[in-house]
Structures are given as C-alpha cells and as structure tokens.
Amino acid sequence: MNEMIALLKQHRSIRKFTKDPVTEQQLDAILTAAQQASTSSNMQAYSVIGITDMELRRELAKLAGNQAYIEESPVFLVWCADLYRWEQAAKRHYEDEMPSTTENFIIGTVDAALAAQNAAIAAESLGLGIVYIGGIRNQPEQVSELLQLPQHVYPVFGMCIGVPDQSPLNRPRLPRQAVYFENTYKQGAIDSAIDTYDETLSAYMKARSNGKASTAWSQAMAGKAGPVRIHMRSFLEKQGFKLE
Amino acid sequence: MNEMIALLKQHRSIRKFTKDPVTEQQLDAILTAAQQASTSSNMQAYSVIGITDMELRRELAKLAGNQAYIEESPVFLVWCADLYRWEQAAKRHYEDEMPSTTENFIIGTVDAALAAQNAAIAAESLGLGIVYIGGIRNQPEQVSELLQLPQHVYPVFGMCIGVPDQSPLNRPRLPRQAVYFENTYKQGAIDSAIDTYDETLSAYMKARSNGKASTAWSQAMAGKAGPVRIHMRSFLEKQGFKLE
C-alpha cells in the first residue's frame, strides 16, 4: 500500500479546528486539484463559493443547522451544481431553447461531487481536515439568495476546511460484500451484512462515546426514514431545474 | 506542492490499456479507498458492480455506446446510487412507508461520486489509468436489467481501470475566475472567461489532433444542448425513484 492510499484510508470528518489559517497557497492548491477532477464531456458543471465574509458565514451557519464549525472553520466552501455557465457558453452557437433535464441535473451534481472530493483529498494531504455539510440543503432557497446563485445553479453541499483540533476514531464501513458485487447485484448478501455491520457500528459508537451510546447502523438509518428535506424538489423547480 | 497534489493535478482520462492485469490486491486497495470516502450521515448510499464476465462486458459496451475500451480494460466497474440497502436497514425499525425523495436521490448520486473519485485516485496512485463512462446512462433500463439492480438502485456511471497504453495531454480547465467566487456568484465574470477558455481549448484541441480540429469550448458545449438522455426521468421512475 502506498502513501496516497494510506491517506485515503485515514479519512474521518473533522468538526473542530485550531485558529491556524489555511494559507492562500494551500487554498490555491486545493482548488487546482478540484479543477483537475474528471468532468462529464468537459462540461465542468459546478462552481465553488468561498465564504470569507463573516456576517454571511454566520447567516449560512444558522441556515445549515447552527453547527459551530461552519462559523469557526478557517475556510468554508459551498459546492454548487452549475448548468448556468454551460448554458451561457452553448447559447453562443445554439438557438433553440436550452433543455433542463434530469440528465443535466445528474451531470451537475456528479461534477460538483468529483471536484469536491479532489479538494477534500488535497486538503487532507496538506495536513488539513474537512467535513462535508449536507445541512446546506436544509434551507437551500435562502442560501441561494444569499449567494446570488443564478437559475440552474444549486448548492449541493458545503465543506469546512482547517487544521484539525480533534482526532476522532475512523468510522468502520459496511462489509465489502454488501457494497461490491461481481456481475450482478446480490440482494441475498444484504441482510447478513446489515447484521454484521450493526454489531460493528454499535461497538464503534460505544468506544467513541465512552459507553454512552451504542446505536446500531440500522437504527441510525431508520432515523433518516422520516420526511427529510422534502422541499428539495420544489426548491429545484424554483431554481429552474425542470428535471424533464 | 506535495506528491498527492501533483498526482491530482496530473489526471487525464485513459482510454487505451495494455494487456497487463489489475491485481486482486490493487482492486482491493482501490475499493478500500472508495469505501472510506465521506458519505452523507453514514448512509453509504452507493454500490459497485465489477464486471468480470466477458459476455456481460460486451453487452454493456454495446449499450454504453460501443466504446472499445469498455470491453478491453482489465477492470470495469459500474457505480450505482443505492437506496435499497438503506431501506432494508431502516425497515427493521421503521414501519411507515419509506420516502422516495429528490433529497435521497441526491444523497445516493453524491455518495456514488465521492466513493468513485476515491477509487479513481487510488488507482492513479498505483500507476493505473481510469476513465469515467457516462454512456452507462445511454440505455440504463437494459443495464439495470442485466445487472439485476433492485428498485431504488440506478447506474450513475461506469469506470474503466487499467495500465495506461497512451499518454494524452492534460486538458486545460476553465479559468479559476469562472469557477471560484468569493461570497457571491459573479455572473459578470462568466462571459470573458468563456472567451479566454475558448481560445485555450481551441489551441489544445489543435495540438492534440495534430491540427485537424480546433473546436472552441462554447462550440463543444453547444453540441451538448440538444436532447441528451431525455429518458433518464422516466427510467428513474420505473426504477422506483419518485423524486418527490
């Protein structure tokens, strides 16, 4: 195993940062790495907003669930799926109405994720820690207004970056046989893998919480089964994504 | 700049592979790196199908646009957004009907992309090359049948992995000022950035094609403006994604 795979294997989210800054050179390297990620047919259908204005940061932190680390991290990025820029380019040579399809929505969402993951790894290779902030989709309409996002751009997630001031345990992942299959999906492999992982994760939660919690994976997953962010569809429509 | 960032900056898609195999140890390291990627609330809402059956590979290659490298690459992976496994886990503790929301569709799509990008980087760190295959969405219904994907699982993209047998030029990316903004999106920055990038990419295309092509970016983007994969919405509905 080489050093880079060791780095990838070491990933855990960091939610507490020292007061040390992320330097401009570091941010530049992170963004350069992000830009070099794979992108569907070179559409580069994503944009990144770096939030340096602390008043704006406070407002975003409130909108994303009041997590202190959003306010306190030296760098906070909002990763957006962006079909607006593609449209501006295409319109120079294309006269019909531009399509607003589910396919393009997928392309923008995937391009944002690939670029962001490169940024995350670049940051971690510099000794920094990161956490993705799905909470940016809690109130996406207000976020989009604050960031002045044009139609056909939406915030997919945020990302805090900074020098780690904590060293949490790595969280174990699902058994391989529930995630990787040869040739065909194996529904029959799922149930026993969930049994195994429930035990693994329960033990991990116990260790991490000094015995206070021992939630199994399936219990945690049931907690996600209620109506979570059910505004996304109507928000996306307002933002111009017709999902045809 | 460290080695990891140098590696990330060197990325270019590889579409021609030597006959050298990808070893089991290499594939194991690649999948381990993938599994350690960030995931929304630990849902790990993705699965990977490795296509080792060569008859199946030929069929997938046909369905994905008949690209020879899909058939010829030592490893071909299909990355799927997977809400099925999450449902199986949650149902153990949740008795109401499970939701099928746009939010969960985003979570699955993003989780698949983050894991895949870790896999891509792990592969490149081992001296291998990769290319993402969006063409897997050309005929997703047939692909899903072949791979026996259950409801609430869909193929997001494929990925070829192997030892590179070509050394293409790095493709330059959009100017930073069209992709990264401070605090608010800057629509005013887009037009001149497209002008600049049209020139850059035109020169790159010329160099790469020995003078035979010089397509500007905006021209290439106009080529993506027609009706591309307009079946995705109805395919996803059939696959159980209600996108509520």
From TrEMBL, chains A, B:
InterPro entries: Flavin_OxRdtase_Frp, Nitroreductase, Nitroreductase-like. Belongs to the flavin oxidoreductase frp family. The keyword Chloroplast does not apply. SUPFAM superfamilies: FMN-dependent nitroreductase-like (SSF55469). Keywords: Flavoprotein, FMN, NADP, Oxidoreductase. Signal peptide: none annotated. This is FMN reductase (NADPH). Residues 8-162 form the Nitroreductase domain. PANTHER family: OXYGEN-INSENSITIVE NADPH NITROREDUCTASE. It comes from the Bacteria.
